[in-house]
Structure formats: structure tokens, C-alpha cells
Amino acid sequence: MYPVLRKLLFSLEPETAHDFSLECLGAAERLKLLSLFTPSVEDSPVELLGLTFPNAVGLSAGLDKNGDYFNALGQLGFGFVEIGTVTPEPQAGNPKPRMFRLAEHEAIINRMGFNNKGVDYLVDRVKNRRFDGILGINIGKNKVTAEEDALSDYEIAMEKVYPYADYITVNISSPNTPGLRNLQFGDNLDRLLEGLAIKQAQLSEQHGRRVPVLIKIAPDMNEEEVASISQTFLKHKVDGVIATNTTLDKSTVSDSPHAEEMGGLSGAPLTQQSTLVIKQLRAHLGGDMPIIGVGGIQQGSDAIEKLTAGANLVQVYSGFIYRGPALITDIRKAVAAHHALA
């Protein structure tokens, strides 16, 4: 059924199609119709981060920025859903158009710019949680906040989402907020992780529960940079890593009419690079630190490659837009078969 729906959606401007499809999904959930379209697949629970994930397949942040649709999305078979990126204050994001389909490459370029209604709005939505899987909340800094003041924005957002999140993701790798990726390196990363650890400890004591904090990184690093960032993660004993965000490298889509658009590239062209970063991370981090693999998962075999490279869980985004709910089922069956053979 989704291929027919996709033809309709792809006739619309990408951001319009995005908003329309989510509204339809939300309506279907309210009318209790989603179960009619979701195949039943036996859960294969994964214990990680002190949490029990019903299965290893999650939805990446970016699709549901404000927490409006996670209850509906969760009914499609995801073991975990990550909402956001959310910032302390609402912001409009970059001017439109800011999302582009590269259908011939099964890819998307976006320069959304952390458009969201602010953390207070998201928290109000999460209070109406019906999704019984794992809920991650992805936090970022406002565009107007200076790079040297970034920690303050992350602390504000972390404090507000902490009571409602099963885990928190710190996004320091979006290419669409000026200067954000500078937080991934050197003294900037050191200071940020130190401050986040202090805040996490305070909130853990205050709420009587420790919420894991993961760091989301970019794919545009060489192995020396991956080694350096890994050592910093180990030094500060971060709970886990999400690898990777979108890429600025458009060389694989140079034949596309959208190849020169500014923004991050996601989808099939990112598959190999994100898997390589996961493999390098695992080599430098050792076997204990959790890694969630994301980037170019278009079919079950792509997910298995991520797991084989060292990921513990996987997330989808662009592949979900191109293939729909069938992708979730495909990955879950592939992962179950993979674990059965392990």
C-alpha cells in the first residue's frame, strides 16, 4: 500500500509531504486504525543503557521534532523513537525551501536549521505519552546562542526533558547550525562533556533515576579525528554514541540537480561512510560503550552491516521515507535472524 501512497506524497513539495504524512499518521492513530496496517513481528528485546528495548530498530530524530506524532510512529513497530532536535527557545529554522528529494539516489538533502516550537512545547506533548517503547529526546542549542555558551542551552534543555526521557541525545553534529560541529573537537568537547556530566549527576540525584546521555556525531571525520573523539568519550565515560548525522560530502550525488544545495545529505549515499565511522569507533572505544548506528539504512542487510561493524542498535530516517513501514519489518526480521545465528 505504501508505494501507492508514496507516489502521491512525492508529487508534493518535500516539506509539505512530510507535514501531511505525519498529520495522516496522527489521525490514523487517533482513529485506532494503525494496527490494520502494521504486520505483527515477534519482539526481540535488547538490554542496553540500563533499558529494555523491545527491538533493535528505532526512528532517528528529525522526523518528529516537536513530539506531536511519536505515539503514532511508535505503533508502526519501532522499538524506540527519538524526537527532536529541540532547543530551549522556539526557532523558525532556515528559510524555505530547505528540504530536497534526490529520488534517483534514495537520498534527502536538508538544511532545516533546528526548526522547532521549543522545549516547553515538546514537554507538554510528551506528558501525553501512550507509546510503551523507549523514548529518546534529542536536544540542541539555539542558533542565536554563542558557541562558547552552548553548554548553557544543553543544560536548560536537559533539565526540562529529563523527567520524561528514557535517554537524551546531545546533538553536536548537525551541519545546519553555524559552529555547532566545532563542539565535537578538542577543548570545546572536553568542556561540554564535563559540564553535561555534572548536570546529569545533579538531575540523577534530584529525580532518583539516571537517564543515559548519548552524543550524536557527524560522519565527516577521518580516523585520526574518530580516535581523538573516542578518547574524549572514554575520558568522560559518556553513556553512548549515535553515529552518524548527515554528511556535507555531496560527491556521491554530483549528477543530481540538487547536488549544490546547502545542507546535510542523508539516505543511501551515506551507508558506507556511516558504517565505516561505526567500525572505527568500535575499534577505539572497545566493546563496552553502546553505539546506535544510523545513516543510509535502506534494507535489512544495511542494518546487519551496522551491527557487524559494532553498533548495538540501529535507527532509520530517509529509508523510512522511501520505503515506509515495510522497512521496519524487514529490518526486524533481518536482525532477529542475525541474532539467531550469532
In short:
By secondary structure, the chain is α/β, with parallel strands linked by helices. It is built from eleven helices and 13 strands. The protein has a single domain, classed as TIM Barrel, CATH 3.20.20.70.
Description:
By secondary structure, the chain is α/β, with parallel strands linked by helices. It has one domain: Alpha-Beta Barrel (TIM Barrel), CATH 3.20.20.70. The chain has helices spanning 2-9, 14-30, 70-74, 119-126, 150-161, 186-207, 223-236, 271-285, 300-309, 318-323, 326-341, and strands at 46-48, 51-53, 57-59, 80-86, 99-102, 107-110, 134-139, 167-171, 213-217, 240-243, 264-267, 291-294, 313-316. The protein is globular, with a radius of gyration of 19 Å.
Characteristics of this structure?
11 helices; 342 residues; 3-stranded antiparallel beta sheet; 8-stranded parallel β-barrel; alpha/beta; TIM Barrel; 13 strands; single chain
List the helices and strands and how they pair.
Blueprint: H1 2-9, H2 14-30, E1 46-48, E2 51-53, E3 57-59, H3 70-74, E4 80-86, E5 99-102, E6 107-110, H4 119-126, E7 134-139, H5 150-161, E8 167-171, H6 186-207, E9 213-217, H7 223-236, E10 240-243, E11 264-267, H8 271-285, E12 291-294, H9 300-309, E13 313-316, H10 318-323, H11 326-341
Parallel strand pairs: 3-4, 3-13, 4-7, 7-8, 8-9, 9-10, 10-12, 12-13
Antiparallel strand pairs: 1-2, 5-6, 6-11
Helix pairs in contact: 5-6, 6-7, 7-8, 8-9, 9-11
